[in-house]
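Task: complex structure prediction.
Instruction: return structure tokens for all chains below.
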Amino acid sequence: MADAKPILKLSNISKSFSGVGVLKGVSLALSPGEVHCLLGENGAGKSTLIKIISGAYRPDSGMILYQDKEVVHMTPRWARENGINTIYQEIDLVPHLNAAENILLGQEPLKKSGSIDWKEAHRLAMKIFDDMGGSVDMGVPVGMLKIAQQQMVAIAKALSMNSKVLILDEPTSVFTSKEVDLLFRIIKDLKAQGMAILYISHHLEEIFQIGDRITVLRDGCLIKTGAIGEFDKVSLVKAMVGREIDFTQRVEPAAKGEVVLSVKNLTRDGVVENVSFELHKGEVLGIGGLVGAGRTEAVRLLIGADPVDSGEILVKGKAVQIKSPLKALKLGIGMVPESRKENGLVGVRSMAENAGYSYVEVTARKGLVNWKSVKEKVYGLIKKLEVRPQNPALKVSNLSGGNQQKIVLGKWLAADCDILILDEPTRGVDVGARTEIYALMQELKDNGKAILMVSSDMTELLTQSDRILVMSKGRLVSEMTGKDATEEKVLSHALQLGGGVQ
Amino acid sequence: MKALIQNAFKIDPGSDKRDLAKTVLILLGLMVMATILSKGIFLDLNNIINLLNQNAILILVALAQFLIILTGGIDLSVGAITAISSVVIVLFQDLGLGTAIGLAVLISMLLGMVSGVLVTYRKLPSFVVTLAMMQIIYSLSKVLCGGAAVYNTLGGGEINEKLLGFFGGSFLGIPNPILVCIAVVILISLFMRTSYGHFIYAIGGNYNTAYFSGLPVRYVKVSVYILSALISSIAAILFVSRVGMGDPNTGQWLPLDSIAAVTIGGASFSGGVGTVAGTIVGLFILSVLNNIMSLLNVPPTIQPAIKGAVILIAVYLNSRKKQS
Amino acid sequence: MNKSLNISRTLVWLGRYSAPVALVLLFIFGAAAVPNFVSERNLTAVLFQYSVIGFLALGQLLVILTGGIDLSQGSMVALTSIVTSVVMSRYGLAAGVICGLTMTTLLGVMNGLLVSRTKMPAFIVTLGMLGIARGLAMLIANAKPVPIKEAGFAVIGKGTFLGIPISALLLAAACVIIHYFLTQRRLGRYIYAVGSSEDCTILSGVNVQNVKLLVYSLSALLTAIGGLIWSARLTSGSPIGGSGYEMESIAAVVVGGGDLFGGQGTVLGTLSGVLIFGVINSMLNLAEISPFWQGTLKGILILLAVSFSLVRRPGESKR
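Output:
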């Protein structure tokens, strides 16, 4: 079966966003009756590739052949109607409708009178579930089902639409092992029926359990593609890493200062478990791991954005309860959030206002705000950070990504926070601004600030951190000094391959 | 460079000023039109003062509405607040005018706080909360006074003469209602210069960001609802003084009128954008428009239709502007 | 898992049936505690009074199911009554009814076009329309009530059949039709889908814009029918009437288990919501409690129902 003629063929697909190449000449062939696994580090280009296949993005160049015909103008609707279905982690079902209605939405069976034939609809839906070997409660809205069951409904919907290609994006990340078993049985059945399946997962065991072929992406390039037998865990990791890292950029580890933040057994049930570490004055502590490893969730606990279930946080030796970012700010902790647009900036206001908010809050606590000095301070920062264009009244949404990020950073510089949490500090930031942000981090470090940095960018993590923590499935699995860290080491811990690959 | 620093907290001062200039231009155009139509009578000082006097209540309510819209919400209970305040002032004036007014203001602020808490802490949509509050407040005002307008008090006396004389009176040649408006505008402008006022823009523009920046988001949001109710109840003082009664049914059109004024003034319904000056200009545009219509003998009854259409056009243009 | 499933089922059941159950309990309470509550006179009075709101609530339900809101209903009642009475006085009964229905429905189409084709929020669009419809009614009527002299017309407002008000029978028929439409027709299900997840509905090939256009037009049409009954009861058209009725219809939908964020609500629930207010109102009257308390009660019920609908929303109870 695996040698069957490909149903979907991508050749030389390239795609870039604002000048940064995300996919560079990637080719991929999907055949009926095979489970094709797509692997790669964070940011290797997997999700962009999926979005191109499902019609959400249009490639800059390259060709898509589907059932031997070239597809020029692909839309999500076209993809669905022609048998290409993608099941994302955030499942797109209509939450208020029940399973049967969701599966048949837009193609409900009708009676002669033109009203919906509910009996037939339920029969059709039940039949699909029976074929799949699963079952869900049809009596409740799907929004009330468990995520795993919702995923089942999404797959059933894809089947009802006569899918020929099924793309599963990290389907098992929220599954129990029983649910994983069921999903794998379904996948095997579908494979036997001739479905072409593209399977994206970080769990190497899973891949070896159900995969037929593997394609590895790295930095937007196709690294290797081949039958499952050609790989083992070690060679897979080797293929995934190997990015060229310019270690001359690597920072000299700072002399360890006093402990400013100490975290003991921090737990948020089901998301972050028993995380303990210490952050020193004058260091950059990097947190690596795969997307979904609980890194963002862990740092959110440190600023009180989510409630802590158990564990202790000590700031400068004192045990503290942090219930909100307001409290965190009082303790001198600030966070540059992952999503700039949603949590970092007030898009409709000026860059100066944005950079000044936290500082205004800090000064307002001491009495009346001296607006003149606030404005001067903020303007000074904008000049220092070389935000371009240097018009402090410009709407912040009109700035480029790098300059926006400088404003978010500037907000915490103005407020003079001692502990800075940076969640993906250079995501969507151009190269020039990135260098400037790194230089700024060094300067802060030299001034005795402590920086906790979550980063999915391996180069950034390896060159900018004095120490590196690796998280996997909500737990801290490893700690290493920046000097000893290699890409392979971080990745094999993140993938939880035991002792790591030597 | 000094100017740069000074203007740092005005968004894109160019476009901000352009927007205001445009609305001012529309206002001037309408005023010229009114002057021509009235053969110069419009520009008469008496006429202008009259116009301001007539709109004093609406100016206050529009400012109350402006603050709420700035947070990204909407307040349909502004009229009901003026109604209950007017009833309370008249009912309790035997306790002394100051006490009665204080009581009215307190009750209003309490009601505003209820809306604010429901919107902020329970995360309910503001328009439903204020719609329900509107119903509750009107009903409570009717319960208080038995449904009919109240002219005199429990003691049977006339409305306090001081209060009755207030609306028609003047100080240093400026009519009292205008003085009250000016005072409130100054107070709000001062409030907007405090850190709380400053944060309203952040909260309205992006609540999450304001939260992550360590701002006291909840306090600010609730306090805006309280402040808004306070201003609406000040409007009620003018109302009682003008018509000499407390009316549990008054203010039905105030939500619509105030929303129209704020919208024309350039504030955005998604919050975070708008100025006090813009709101006032927006209100003047509405009132001059009314004046012109009466000069043209357009029946006053059609005014709701004009206001409705004006809201639709203004919001439509605003939504187009954002897309581009 | 079974436990969470039971909770889900309970929530679904509550959303659907808490209003009817509450209505029955209220009724039993009224029968036991309030003298003269269960009398033909009282019950027909409730039906006469609340069938108008019933039509409005049905329209409001359709709009709210898509996640929208229609604030223009009250003014539309006045506009329908005025257009109908003015045209009827010159061109007869049929012309009056047709013009009344058409005029109001056209404004509803305007609402639908503006909501579905522009980015304007529904409550602003319909708030603007509230003003426009009221102004038009005032203009056409010259701000005065217009008497209706056609005797036949009064039947839909005052007549009874087998002792039951004809207006209530009309409402019952409308409920059956809308219920059938919402549960048995594709378009009806799409109304739920649009309110639940617009993006996903678009992806399933449904023309969401037209679904929205339809619900605002239907809301206006149902409101217009309510307006006809209203003017038939008064035997006159009034340009100032109906104000605040949109509030009552929203209250009925929400208390009947409808969710203002869309996707949730039933005809049975909405009808129960309407009757709950009718029954409470009549009990207050019979118990000689000031009718002025009604608004307070209504407002509190709405706030409670809205808070509760947050809990029931699928997707938010999870996690």
